[in-house]
Amino acid sequence: MIAEIDTSLIDWSRAQFALTAIYHWLFVPLTLGLGIVQAIMETIYYKTGDEFWKKTAKFWMKIFGINFAIGVATGLILEFEFGTNWSNYSWFVGDIFGAPLAIEGIVAFFMEATFIAVMYFGWNKVSKGFHLTSTWLTIVGATISAFWILVANAWMQHPAGMHFNPDTVRNEMGSFWEVALSPVAINKFFHTVLSGWIIGGMVVAGISSWYLLKKRETKFALASIKVGVAFGLIACLLSIWTGDGSAAQVAEKQPMKLAAMEGLYKGDKGINLVGIGILNPSKKEYNDDKSPFLFKIDVPIPKFLSYLSFGDFNAYVPGIKDIIDGGYTTSDGSIALSALEKMKKGKLAIAALADYSSAKADSALFERKADSIKNAITAAECVVETADGDTILLLSDEVFATKKATVYSRIAESRQQLNDNIKYFGYGYIKEPSDLIPPISLTFYAFRIMVILGGFLLLLFAISAYFSYKNKFETKRWLQWTCLISILFAIIAGQAGWVVAEVGRQPWAIQDMLPTSAAISRLSTSSVQITFFIFLALFTVLLIAELKIMINAIKKGPQINEQ
Amino acid sequence: MDTTYIFLQNYWWFLVSLLGALLVFLLFVQGGQSLLFTIGKTPIQQKMLLNSTGRKWEFTFTTLVTFGGAFFASFPLFYSTSFGGAYWVWILILLCFVLQAVSYEYQAKKGNLLGTKTYKIFLLLNGILAPVLIGTAVGTFFNGAEFIVNKAQLTTIGNPVISSWATSWHGLEAAFVVWNVFLGLAVFFLSRVLALLYFINNINDDEIQKKSRKQLIIETILFLVFFLTFFVHLLFQKGFAVNPDTKEVFMQSYKYLNNFIQMPVVLVVLLVGVVGVLFGIGKTILSAAWKKGIWFAGTGTVLTVLALLLCAGWNDTAYYPSLTNLQSSLTIQNSSSSLFTLKTMAYVSILIPLVLAYIVYAWRALDIHKITNKEMEENEHTY
């Protein structure tokens, strides 16, 4: 049982979580975006009484419902996987991490579940006003749920508002508001929900364009496009702003992630932002002298990475090698420790915790024995066995007092050593400095894909909005084709964003506090492999079914609902 | 220990128990699914059944998720130990809920890949497996599970996982303890009883009414057999008690019987609950025109399950006992969140009555209109 945790178990546990998250994020952003679009449409219906808008809203609600079901299903798995596959994590930070999940359930999920039923089944049963309110509350509930789960995710990227309690051997919450309203959480919420809005806007524009290409449902399609592209355009503009905020936070809190995103090995002042590039596959070590790129073109604004990161064109941005080697001045003015120094401190923290726990156990024995010693008649009753297995014969009050004082000073010393090094606790589990480097190419390319597709979508929404509001969209077949194909681009951009966020923070489950290797459940690799493939098969079949149903519903079109 | 802390630990055990109790009541949706082919002989009858209990599936689902979240926030050591250890039981439960989540929406849709029949079978599977598995899993609260918790393990650098399961069955071994299975089957037949009562209340169709009333008698008998056997055994079995001074866990004869005697309020809740369930069923069977059975039996179910779960965790009882190492057993004291977190979450819990109020409001707004043949045939949104 004391055998080392198998690295394949870590990899498969990560793979299973990634699989579930990727599938979850295929469906959820669309519901976040479509939910608003359909609510806007129903509001127009409520204001104008025009049946056309009711039918238009109802069509998008149908698409929403098909997505919603499978989003819910994958979401359930994600929540419980924290327990099933990341049980050590769940104990180590459950005191903080559980709260947002519980609040999500109490505040958001019930709102969603209650009012979605009214939205679908209440058309002829409740008043128009109640129905409209329900449609809005469905998406408000979904968005609140996004907020709380992103609070949880942001906390893993930038832990705040907690302290380590050596008595309970876990982290405990010290400030709820620091957790819930951490700037990282707020930014992550907006950036992520906006990406959902972009996908929602693109899906509305894309499907409507398909009708135009087929010369069907023209009125419906043009009206939907107006709402979809305006919504998408606003979301795109706002997401540039939140994306900028996100880059600055990563630079400050997760410098290694930033370095990976940029393929930056050697840091400097006034660093350029890489526009596009191809990484050198023969670069295997962070400290070999090979060039990191086969080819790259920087963004034409000089020193842009320094500016994005720290708001200063001449700011120093550390590279991967710098972060491992340490010695540079960080943004807060301190000198960065090397990876080896952090690992040493981490091991000191872990050792101090072990010492603290055993001294604490001994002190409990002394306390318990204190009374019985006084009445002891035989020497055997005066024996205290310590956690180390030593037996101490307590012959006199004097000896007892000395031994007891030693135990209490051990408690104080170990506590001090723990406090001094707790910041690096997680580093104690790291074996090699190079283990601190996330997969570079995946992070680097995913970041480029997200940014480039995001820029493209912004342009597309702007052009589409222009033609749409000039009433010329109907004749622009090239634009309709582009919108249809770009549904895929919007989805890929969203997935790529999550890859940057989650792959880029490896090896950490919680930044600097707990690596994934120490966060897992003690299972056999084969068990996790089996469940991985079960989920893979199940989700894939359900995805195909979902797409087929959606395509059928689109082919049938909103007209059918009009009868 | 701080009395506020002790109060909050008990309060949160109450809330978790209440969520569990609501979940068992809401399993009537699963009961409805398991009866889909028993009561519904024609496609239109099946459609009415699906649209009756089925339109509440999201409540059951959401309650399950919230139950998980609340348990995580208030008793994280349970979350990590049980979910990470009894892996296969929880994975099976999750899988069958995934099947449910998509099946209502997809079964009647064109192009659904697997065909309507397959999705109905998925619903049937969830209808059977979910209550049986959840009931069996809850059985381990009284009969123990096979795990070890050792927090010191965190300082073993190559292998820092603190909770470990002692059998390679990873939770499936619970199914070999007959009393767990009896509870599982009791929950299963109860879910069917509740579903029948809901059909009777909610569907205006003579044939479904007649069939449901007939089936109700059979399901009630089976429910009573399994539940009473489990319950009588519970009262007489040894229980997992905690010494309040030393926190030591030890076996005590008649522990659960004593809990009811020492906590008369819980006993009253239990008795009112049982009477509610029996009255709801009994009057439905005796009076052919009476349709309100679900509300009595439903409330009764919530109260009964609440009392049972309180009995598992309150009054110095280990609610998740370890058979492998008695001192690893989880109690509401040794597995709870910090005082700060419990307090914060207690503020959040003030919202619960508000949530219940709007659920009741929206539920009533929809249920005033009964399910009829006519609604099913109109081209409105139906399952």
In short:
By secondary structure, chain A is mainly alpha-helical.
Description:
The complex is a heterodimer of chains A (about 575) and B (about 375). Among the domains of chain A are: about 1-180 and about 520-550, no CATH class; about 260-325, no CATH class; about 340-425. Chain A is built from 15 helices and ten strands. Chain A is globular. In chain A, the strands form five sheets. Chain A has a two-stranded antiparallel ribbon. A two-stranded antiparallel sheet of chain A has the order 3-6. With about 575 residues, chain A is mostly helical. The longest helix of chain A has about 40 residues, at about 5-50. Chain B has about 375 residues and is mostly helical. Chain B has one domain (about 5-235, about 340-375). Helix content of chain B is about 70%, strand content about 5%. Chain B contains 16 helices and six strands. Chain B has helices at about 5-25, 30-35, 35-40, 45-50, 55-75, 75-85, 85-105, 115-145, 180-200, 205-235, 255-260, 265-285, 295-315, 340-350, 350-365, 375; strands spanning about 145-150, 165, 240, 250, 320, 330. Chain B has a two-stranded antiparallel sheet. In chain B, β3 and β4 form a beta hairpin. Chain B starts with a helix and ends in a 6-residue tail after the last helix.
Q: Roughly how much helix do the residues of chain A carry, as a percent range? A: 55-70%
Report the mean per-residue pLDDT of chain A as an integer. Answer: 91
Low-pLDDT runs of chain A: none
Percent of sequence in beta strands of chain A: 5-15%
Task: Quote the average pLDDT of chain B.
Answer: 94
From the helix content, strand content and strand pairing of chain B, which structural class follows? mainly alpha
Biggest sheet details of chain A: 2 strands, antiparallel
- Determine Rg of chain A (CA atoms, Å): 28 Å
Give me the count of strands of chain B: 6
Ends distance of chain B: 53 Å
